[in-house]
Amino acid sequence: MPARRDLLFPLLLLGGLALSRAGAQALGLLLPQDRGPRELDVSAYPPEIREGYRVFAHKCSKCHTLARPLNTTMRADFWARYVGEMMQRPASNIGETDARAIYAFLAYDQTHRKDADPGRFFPPLTDEQIELLLAERGRR
To answer: How would you label 57-94 residue by residue, b for 16+ Cβ within 10 Å and e otherwise?
Structure first.
């Protein structure tokens, strides 16, 4: 079980978003957020935020579905911590400039889209919810 916990640590720490694509595939874990829309029409967003979305889509899709963060609602400090954690993952190839652009997009999207209709989005998963998903997977 330690290997499974090692894969889940980022998920628990960062509210259900940081599980890598390899980790999610290895566990066969599909999060509720993964079932939502996988892209976003940002044509009405300011130009610098649209650019942040482009960087987000390119960089973040290397490790997890875009649906996961697009369908999760979190406080700005969680988004900042999440982007910082993702910078540390070699596969992400996220530098400081990219991280600032990604965070700007996530924070803007949170306040302008998600906070306006929070019922449409998923809050970060709790430890209990993650354990339930793992238990359900084990029964199949």
So the answer is: bebbeebbbbbbbbbbbbeeebbebbbeebbeeeebeb
